Amino acid sequence: MAEQINPIDNSPILRPGFGLIDGKIRVLSPINPYRAARELLGGSEYSSRHGLLAEHLFILVAALIFPDIPESELARLGSYAGLHDLGKSALLPIVIKRDLNPLERGLLHQHPEVAAKLLSGWPNVPPDLFTMTTLHHERQNGEGYPKGLKAGDIPWQASMMAVVDVLVTVTAPRPWENKVLTFSDGLGTIDEEASRGRQHGQTVAILIKALPSLQDGSIVDRFADNPTVLRSLYTLAPIYNWPTPPLSTT
Ligand SMILES: [Fe+2]
Ligand SMILES: [Fe+2]
């Protein structure tokens, strides 16, 4: 029988349409994954900001790593990055907003598998969206979840998503804690994870190389003819205190 009640305080945990059976979140009736994602992003300021930062940082990182990538491709991948946590839509926004108890944390950790269940039941899901929503908690050395995949088995979209996800998480205030790192300190944290084999070294290295140009604003000129990247830069700049000089005319 489906159970949606938190036994610790009797509060509901899951949204309608999801149920807990044998400790696993199930999709009980067909749910439009895009509507679920919209409800997640609209459900709390934290979730909407997390998605927004993930979208724009993913676009920036992809543009740094693939200098010739078409803008349409950047925008497409960026939009998927913004939806990377769509599996969290199984939980009520009130749960996501607070510091979690062990039961809730266990359920939240199922969100990549919930994403797989939601997207598997929907037609014409882009494979990259499936990859980024279901594998972004895998780690290069196999320490991630849900599958414990290792470097060679993790698609680059998911490896890049993992770096972006951790970076936007540690550099944005969470509702239940005040600790927040600057962008460069957050990058240091990811670099340390990369040195332990957890994160994708090339992605981290390209961000570290770009850091001075982000901090002095000169990166704006590098992407002067790429409105998609400029839009992402100008979205991220006030959040990370990067200067946004006017485009050079020379
Ligand atoms: Fe996630
Ligand atoms: Fe995330």
From TrEMBL:
InterPro entries hit by this protein = HD/PDEase_dom, HD_GYP_dom
Residue ranges of domain HD-GYP in the record: 25-222
Which residue positions does the secretion signal occupy? none
The name this protein goes by in its record: HD-GYP domain-containing protein
